[in-house]
Amino acid sequence: MSEHHHSRRLLYIVVGILFLLSAVVFYVKLRYLNFSLDDRNSSFYQVDADLSFTPEPGKTVRIVLALPDVTPGFCYGLGPADGKFRILGQGIDRRAELELPPSQEEGRRRVIQYRFRIVRCEPESQPAVPPRVMPETMVADSVRIAGDALWKQADPELRLSPPARIPALLRLLGAATPPERQKLSIRGGVEGSVAGAVEILNRHGIPARPLAGIYLDEKHSQQPPSLFLEAYYGGAWHVFRPNTGEEGLPPDFLILQKGERALFEVSGATGSSVRFAVTRVPVGAERLNRIRASILGERLLPDLTLFSLPAAEQNMFKHLALLPLAILLIVLTRNIIGIQTMGTFMPVLIAMAFLEMKLLPGLINFTLILTVGLAIRFWLSRLNLLMVPRISAVVVVVILLMQLISVAANVLRLPDFMAVTFFPLIIIAWTIERASTIWEEDGPVNTLKQLGASLVAGALCYLVLSNSYLQYLLYTFAELNLVLLGIILLLGTYTGYRLTELVRFQALAVKR
Amino acid sequence: MKIPLPFPRLVSPRRLHEAGVLGMNRRNHAYIMRYNRRADYPDVDDKLRTKELAIRFGVATAELIGSIRFQYEVRDFERLVGDAPDFVIKPGHGSGGRGILVVKHREDGRFFKPDGSSCDYDFVYEHISNILSGLYSLGGQVDYALFERCIDFSDVYSRFSFQGVPDVRLIVFRGYPVMAMIRLATKESDGRANLHQGAVGVGIGIRDGRPRFAAQHNREISRHPDTGALFSELVVPEWEAHLELAARCAEMTSLGYFGADIATDRRRGPLLLELNARPGLAIQIANGQGLLTRLRLIESLPVGAHPTRAEKIAFAREHFN
Question: Domain range spanning residue A366?
Fold first, then answer.
């Protein structure tokens, strides 16, 4: 007994320390380091451009990367200037350049990272810069004929104004088959469409140029650059989306390059490509970094906060930042509400998969896999297999099922469903196994009840995990997790009734 | 299966507490975690160990035939069984009656189950293989198969049960039997004695082994839904022997809080079926009474208040009606 009281007192002390520590760090961050509770205006974007290429042996590699031009609503700051890159040019032509000494190693792929920072600011109106006079370009006759044919097709009676004609042209180019497009441009895909449109428009007196940039969202950790078309008429530049012809720039789009020059150039190497990763970094954290850097000296010690990690890793940690909250939710469902889920943390894991494919497609996918998996598991049980081979067979079936769903989703153009691969494979196989034994022992009603409870818990976890403000809060103020830890520890000694028991034992209270 | 209303009526926690109802969290934290050491769990989770302990401490159980641990032994299971006309195969680490195969008699190489159906050598072979692979064990760990003789179940309960063989569950706390019930299968529970599947729980008074209350699906009930038998007519035979058996169990293991399942054999009387280190809470519903008051009473006793088994039983019979 006394030992029990002792352990309880120790627990209260530990929890008290956790709460206090968390409160102190939180207060210091908020009050003295200017961290903001508001997740909107107090952060900047950190963009990592990963240039990968295979150097040709014995040649100097020269890398040129276009830097962001002024995009309304964004200000930009330059990268960490680690001395490697030189900044050249001004305005639209501003570029970062790097030369690498020749290496004798053959065929080893290299990745060079360039990091820059983008700060959102109030949009200011900017005078439209009229186009420079376009030099007459020499084009082959075949290109000219193919272009004129398309131009005519887009506007057969030559009556449309540019705002209507350009989208029509872009749609035609988007729908064109690769051989048709090749007549206009040697480049394929969207790049070919835009290049073709630029060529046609320029020759017909509408100054046009391609526009390359990236989306400032954190959904994709490895984002390729996106292309748009910009045309000048009526005294202003207008932006159009290739393929659909939709006018206007999407919000959160950052322009990196305008005009014919490539977004990046790598000479002395082959197979070069660029990918961007975007992270939003709270400003307070940045300030903290700077203070720490000035004390410790930037060169002596690398930065110790999560914010100094590469953008892709930071995004991963942002997902993890909310896990403690989701886990607390599971503890609440089981020990306070008293609902049994199938597998303790299975709901959290499926919720993380739901994050990749949105809630409804996620639920549909999960139900689909579970139904088919269960059907196959029942059939397998007739074969009288030993347990490990049987579960392994279920795992294989689940893999095939995921592939099938992915392929079907691709054909049916349901991109959300293609993320089915994010489901935790082994967990699902075990869930199927558990569900089938419960089905055999306790009947289908109990199985469906437990599965339903797991799905509801998973959906709840999803709602928590997908909340961007909570994510911001728990990532920026990681010390709040200590509070969650404390609450979980306290719940470990909760000996009161569970909510479901208030129903279950009703008769006992009424009687006496 | 009754589907609860969207907003079921909740009873206030205070009233539950006043009624002495033990909740799952308190059971786990204040009783199982406090009185059952993890190291003692094999005493009840490992059936062969339970059996050996029972034999050593003079607790009557079904007769042990032997056990099979390795796949290559499975082939010769008939040699292990020998001349025994009937036998039961159990997973050594099974729970909740999973994976138990009962063979009532054998004829021409066929094995007859209690319900009259029969199976062949291959079926039994498969079943033992499944047990060894851990199909029925906790956490799927590798297991062994335990062979014992069938219990010749007394038919005193037969008119109170739809198929199945009823057994008495006694909760034993620090050596005192504190609460008892008998679980009776129904058509709805599919002949099984699981209360949450619709079996009837009849609360049995510790004092005299006679019924006090009966409940199905958390509701009071007076007649068996299938056989129509009045539960008030039910009598547990050899009740003293039941209490004695339960109290002996407390001596063979250092677990402080456990459930003992006891069946009645026609010739040998009460036999221990198995022990359970995490006995469920439904026994309160079957008794229409909370457990907590009784557990608290035992906890309030000074250490060594009743040094002998007989004194503990006498105390329990006096206080737990």
Answer: 323-466
Q: What is the mean pLDDT of residues B11-38?
A: 90
Separation between Cα atoms, residue A482 and residue A459, nearest integer Å = 25
* Amino acid in the structure at residue B42: P
| pLDDT tens digits, A163-196 | 778 888 888 887 777 777 777 777 777 778 888 8
Q: Is residue A271 part of a domain?
A: no
Q: Using the beta-carbon criterion (under 8 Å), do A494 and B25 form an inter-chain contact?
A: yes
Verify whether the Cβ–Cβ distance B10 to A495 is below 8 Å: no
Please give the tally of structural domains in chain A: 1
- Taking the C-alpha atoms of residue B288 and residue B310, their distance in angstroms, rounded to an integer, is 27
B10 vs A502: CB contact, 8 Å cut-off?
yes
pLDDT digits (tens, 9 = 90+) for A352-381: 888 877 788 888 888 888 899 899 888 887
State the Cα–Cα distance between residues B98 and B134, nearest whole angstrom.
Answer: 11
B195: tokens are 């209360």
> B288 to chain A nearest CA, in Å?
6
Q: Which residue has the higher pLDDT, A393 or A185?
A: A393
Question: Backbone phi, then psi, for B145, in 5-degree steps?
Answer: -105, 130
For A493, the closest of B16, B29, B126 (CB atoms) is: B29
CA B259 to chain centroid, in Å, comes to 7
Question: Can you give the pLDDT at residue A295?
Answer: 42
Q: Cβ distance A282 to A24 under 8 Å?
A: no
Q: Which residues of B touch A388 (CB under 8 A)?
A: 133
Strand partners, A119: A44, A75
Distance to chain A for B268, nearest Cα, Å: 31
> Closest Cα of chain B to A272: distance in Å?
51
Rounded to whole angstroms, how far apart are CA atoms A390 and B307? 53
Q: Is A398 a domain residue? A: yes
Sorted by where each starts, the structural domains of chain B and their CATH numbers stand as 13-42+154-319 (3.30.470.20), 63-148 (3.30.1490)
Q: Domain for residue A477, yes or no?
A: no
Q: Are A486 and A343 in contact (CB under 8 A)?
A: no
- Backbone conformation region of residue B82, classed left if phi is above 0, alpha if psi is from -120 to 50, else beta: left
Ordered DSSP codes for B237-272: TTHHHHHHHHHHHHHHS--SEEEEEEEEETTTEEEE
CA angle at residue B181 from B180 to B186, to 5 degrees? 170
ipTM of the complex: 0.80
Instruction: With CB atoms and an 8 Å threshold, state whether A497 touches B23.
Output: yes
CA–CA gap between residue A76 and residue B179 (Å, rounded): 75
Chain-chain contact of B9 with A512 (C-beta, under 8 angstroms): no
